[in-house]
Please model this.
Amino acid sequence: MNIFPIQRFTVNGDSMFPTLKEGQDVLSLNWFFKPKVGDIIVLKYGGKEMVKRVEKIDDQEVFVVGDNEAESTDSRDFGTVNMDKIVGKVVYQGKILNQVQDDRMIDCPSCSSPVIGIYGRKDAICSNCGFKLACCGEP
Model:
């Protein structure tokens, strides 16, 4: 059993496109759930974590698929997966950080990357280059 009840995972690849996009963050509920057909889950297979959709449940095994059949490595390739390989059920699909634009986003004067900050706060720092923004977003 996973020691964290909720965990963040980042989608890697296009196997779940268009439902999930590469770079998108998801939250997984890891305790006290029973997967159902149609659920999007996180599972460990072949030494890595994958995000897939449950297509069929047979006793203690699940058949999982990616929504983008042409780009997915899933049960069509490796067969059913034992229930103990399931990490959790996806319960939240976040936005892709570099595509988020809202009133909290300001451009870094040094590298022009988006910086999450609030105008007037002295602790806004660019995660790309480390440039520190002073009061009112001015350098």
About this structure: The first helix runs from residue 75 to 78. Residues 97-104, 118-122, 135-139 have pLDDT under 50 and may be disordered. The chain is about 5% helix and 35% strand. Residues 6-93 form a domain with the Umud Fragment, subunit A fold (CATH 2.10.109.10).
